[in-house]
TrEMBL record:
Pfam families: Response_reg (PF00072), Trans_reg_C (PF00486). This is Stage 0 sporulation protein A homolog. It comes from the Bacteria. The modification 4-aspartylphosphate is found at residue 52. May play the central regulatory role in sporulation. It may be an element of the effector pathway responsible for the activation of sporulation genes in response to nutritional stress. Spo0A may act in concert with spo0H (a sigma factor) to control the expression of some genes that are critical to the sporulation process. One of its GO terms (cellular component) is cytosol. Residues 3-116 form the Response regulatory domain. Gene3D superfamilies: 3.40.50.2300, 6.10.250.690, Winged helix-like DNA-binding domain superfamily/Winged helix DNA-binding domain.
Length: 225
């Protein structure tokens, strides 16, 4: 998980922003492929996105709406457009702030720091809400699994099972470890209950094209591939 992801087609400005934020100790990444910004954001899983509005192919508002389908990451729009309509549009599209070009590095850093504090101060040991494995993305907050252009919603137990398997990518997880993860003060999980939940989860994954995603290792447990 990086700190800041910059989506800006002006390479010189992008490098200036990168340098200004890096000086403050932030881990910064600049976009490589402006044709598939959502994929890059998901791969880097940043704490904050700086999004230009005037971009090739699609504008920043479009990419913001696409990212919002997967992540609740804060997004600051940066643009030379300073009319009220664009600012209102940025708010309506889920933007967290708006900076008009040209701007000073000090103002940018101050806004970035304020939003990061506001978003993450409740938990200094913040864990990612997104887990990726190959082409599979799991959003813990939304309790959804995404694969290519399809998604499926998970129950509480299915989400816990999926998370422990995604956290142990390509490693066998024993039935005992999964049961321990599922077993809380409210509900006792038996061997049979686990089997039922695994089968239901498999059917949901099958429905979005993830056939045989969860494999059974006889006498050992389960593994995703």
């Amino acid at each position: 998980m990086i700190d800041i992801f910059i989506v800006e087609d002006d390479k010189d400005l992008s490098r200036e922003i990168n340098l200004a934020l890096s000086k403050w100790g932030y881990e910064v990444k600049e976009v490589d492929n402006l044709e598939d910004i959502t994929k890059e954001v998901l791969e880097n899983n940043p704490k904050l996105v700086l999004m230009d509005i005037n971009l090739p192919s699609h504008d920043g508002f479009y990419w913001c709406s696409q990212i919002r389908n997967f992540l609740k990451v804060p997004i600051i729009f940066i643009s030379s457009r300073d009319n009220d309509m664009d600012i209102i549009m940025s708010i309506n599209m889920g933007g967290d702030d708006y900076i008009v070009k040209p701007f000073s590095p000090q103002v940018l850093v101050a806004k970035v720091q304020a939003i990061l504090r506001r978003t993450y101060s409740y938990n200094s040991n913040l864990k990612s809400d997104i887990i990726k494995f190959k082409e599979v993305t799991m959003n813990i907050v939304e309790a959804k699994v995404y694969y290519k252009d399809k998604s499926t919603e998970l129950t509480k137990n299915e989400l816990k099972i999926m998370k422990i398997l995604m956290d142990n990518q390509e490693k066998i997880v024993s039935r005992e470890d999964i049961i321990e993860e599922l077993w809380d003060s409210e509900e006792f999980i038996s061997e049979n209950t686990l089997t039922v939940n695994i089968n239901r989860l498999r059917k949901k994954l099958d429905s979005i094209g993830l056939e045989e995603f969860i494999l059974t290792k006889k006498g050992q447990g389960y593994i995703i591939r």
